[in-house]
Amino acid sequence: MFDVSHIHPMLVHFPIALLCFGFFLELCYLVRRKYICLTAAGLYLLLGGTLATVLTVLSGFFFTGEMSGAAGAVREIHETFAVATAVVALLASGLRLYLARKKVEKSPLMTVAFLLYGLAALGVMGAGFYGGTLVYNHMMPL
To answer: Rounded to an integer, what distance in angstroms lies between the CA atom of residue 115 and that of residue 96?
Structure first.
């Protein structure tokens, strides 16, 4: 039987894949600047990853139960990483969309957007690590 508590675990992999692979494409674009399609794909993956991150964070808040003790402490760290990732991804997306709309390709703001994208990728990895720790160390039977 389907339970709404399953929504969060089903969504968590999308932000991880989209943000990490998108940032990887942006790194590849830095190495080979002649392939503009890499940064375009990176932008689309950033936008999709940002949307997936926001939906995943909301599903975690609304559809998962409370925890206490050591599990509660790990969950707090997991939530902190998740919310920070969502905020940073929203900032990176907004900045990238602004620069794309203005057709700006070389600007210090592109560097800022790239760094924010990198922070979002690192943040989603941290959230994933603590989420996995929560599941495998505190929720699964031994």
So the answer is: 11
Q: Is the pTM of this model over 0.90?
A: yes
Separation between Cα atoms, residue 40 and residue 109, nearest integer Å: 16
Q: Is residue 75 within 8 Å of residue 68, measured between CB atoms?
A: no
Q: Which residue has the higher pLDDT, 34 or 141?
A: 34
Of 41, 64, 60, 62, nearest in space to 52 by CA: 60
- Torsion, Cα 89 91 97 103, to 10 degrees, reads -120
d(CA 40, CA 121): 17
